[in-house]
Amino acid sequence: MEKADLLIKNTKVYNSYLKCFMPADVYVQDGRIYYVDTRQENALSPDEVLDGSGCLMLPGFIDIHMHIESSMMTPVSFGERAASCGVTTLVSEPHEIANVMGVQGIHEMINGAKDSPIDIFYGIPSSVPSTNESLETTGGVIGFEEMKHLMREEGVVCVGEIMNYRQIVKGTEMEITFLVTLERKIRRLLLRATALS
User: Fold this and answer.
1) For residues 55-89, b (16+ Cβ closer than 10 Å) or e, as one string?
2) How many whole angstroms separate alpha carbon 26 and alpha carbon 14?
3) Nearest alpha carbon to residue 146 among 189, 190, 102, 91
4) Which residues, other chains included, contact 112 with Cβ-Cβ below 8 Å and sequence gap of 6+?
């Protein structure tokens, strides 16, 4: 019989597709869920067994948009608190720190999250300053060149919220527009190169 490190017996596992809890035995191998046995057939041979009677198991929560710096906590301490509430992953949009320190502040935030117990990814702040330099005094400006630079950072996965609604209403070109246009051109070139090879 195939082995497993751990068996959590008699728990109820949340099925996010059916939106309900289902009785199941959960096998863990190398710190990861390996098999969810909804028939409870003792499918694997575990080294250790825990009784999960009366307990519920849910997948880790993902917070898709968060401003960690608004919590007045470091990424690690925020991650510790979030983990205790079942959050395993979040996407931080470091707009506030970018207003104060620009790209350097974002780098510091990314580096400061390396020891976090949860996975922290980042969105590129698309409006720094959030209006314009004549209305706001900021410690940094993030435009097209800075966005291109940040795209290459490990852990940067998306573009953050667009707060400069005045530019949207006016229909004027925004820095983010140039970035999206560049991304589309790169994809087209890659598709052509793939087709030719």
Assistant:
1) eebeeeeebeebebbeeeebbeebbeebeeeebee
2) 12
3) 102
4) 74, 75, 76
Query: Who wins on pLDDT, 48 or 31?
Result: 48
Q: Which two tokens stand for residue 169?
A: 């209403």
Q: Calculate mean pLDDT across residues 30-56.
A: 92
Length of the chain: 197
Task: Tell me how many degrees the CA angle 139-90-17 measures, rounded to the nearest 5.
Answer: 150
pLDDT of 34 reads: 93
Per the CB < 8 A criterion, the answer to whether 72 and 81 are in contact is no
123: Cβ contacts below 8 Å, ≥ 6 apart = 65, 91, 92, 93, 94, 156, 157, 158, 159, 160, 161
- pLDDT tens-digit profile of 47-76? 999 999 999 999 889 999 999 999 999 999
| Single-letter residue type at 61 | F
Q: Residue 31, by phi and psi: left (phi above 0), alpha (psi -120 to 50) or beta?
A: left
Q: Among residues of the chain, what percentage have pLDDT more than 70?
A: 88
